[in-house]
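Researcher: Here's a chain I'd like modeled. Treat it as a single chain, no partners, no ligands.
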Amino acid sequence: MKKPQGGYRIGDLASMFGLTARTVRYYEELGLLKSSDRNEGIHRRYPARNLSSLKRIKNLKALGLSLMEIKEFFDLAERDPSGGLCKALLVRKYDEMMDQERNAMEEARHRLEELSARAERVKETAPFLNCPGSDCEDCPAADYCQDGIESAAKAGRP
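Model: Modeled as a single isolated chain. Structure tokens:
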């Protein structure tokens, strides 16, 4: 789309970025976008600098940042036009996100190990509908299940 004279209309920005007009207005309310004076008192116009703001908002949202966190970046950028503080903050956010992902991977690895162990136990147990005996964690019927007691005794388990 060619840059229109006097800036972009709200619908232009919305369609360019796959947003609704309401979302564009909300971003403006939050201070993430700046409109110029209304054209002939009817329509808002958004200067071209809002294009890069919308690109930045989309990128930061894709990283999982909230609009309030994104607003923090925009406020910081106004105070520090060099961008150094924003870069440092973004690097810190990336580091936090990488730590969260590493933790999630570690939890997933533990779940995989547990599933693998359970699969091995299933291979060694009696027919499916028989009580699995001591392999049945937190079983409310463990004291009353004859199949489980007999299966455990045969396998040499307590």
